[in-house]
Design a protein that fits this description.
Elements (H helix, E strand, L loop, with lengths): L1 E9 L16 H12 L8 E2 L8 E11 L5 H11 L4 E9 L9 E11 L13 E2 L6 H9 L3 E4 L14 E12 L2 E8 L6 H14 L5 H9 L14 E8 L2
Parallel strand pairs: 3-10, 5-6
Antiparallel strand pairs: 1-3, 1-4, 2-3, 5-9, 5-10, 7-8, 8-9
Helix pairs in contact: 3-4
Amino acid sequence: MNRIKCIISYDGTLFSGYQVQPNQRTIQTDIETVLTKMHKGNPIRIHASGRTDTGVHAVGQVIHFDSEFNLLPEAWKRALNAQLPKDIYIKSVEIVDDKFHSRFDVVRKEYRYFIWNDKDENVFSRNQHYFFPFELDIVKMQEALNSLLGTHDFSSFCAANTDIKEKVRTIYKGTINKSEQGIVIALEGNGFLYNMVRIIVGTLIEVGQGKREVISVKNALLACDRAKAGKTSPPNGLFLWKVDYNN
């Protein structure tokens, strides 16, 4: 049995998230359907570094699966991309040790959130950014983001309907920059809670608008109360950018 590791990208616009759901199109379902077909009807289960929600995209999602096939990495890549829909793409394939696990071996993840901050919408990439036509003070937003760096209980920045009990996470780096794509908020951490990045972004936008003081972000963090943080920003601006492992 061979363990296959893939780095994949996908446009999440037409998917109901990553994880299998009844009667819904998902990333996991589409890839497993192709793999099962390749294995003549024998079900193949894939495992990802983590789930992404409806409308969220990925540039560097990582999955693994086990197969009895002895194909070279490039052969795997060609075979999968030939059968997958155009909004999923296998970027690279690697044969790895059978102890590797795409989820449990993660040491760092990076997410990026794109905001189209202009008075006019960009219709050509409307599904890949959050259109926000109002002025934002990114200096104050960066100052507020800095207060979230380090290891903290991020209960205030986690969806209230989650059943996750352990909410301590570490954010190693957080930056806010202007680019041709508008404003890009990048976060690197050892892991992220349900809706955590989108809630952080929504809170920072309120700071950038002047609707919230910079210090209020640190106060919200310390409160461990979802009601103290800002709104959850839309999913279409969010990308799982990169996943790092020790190997």
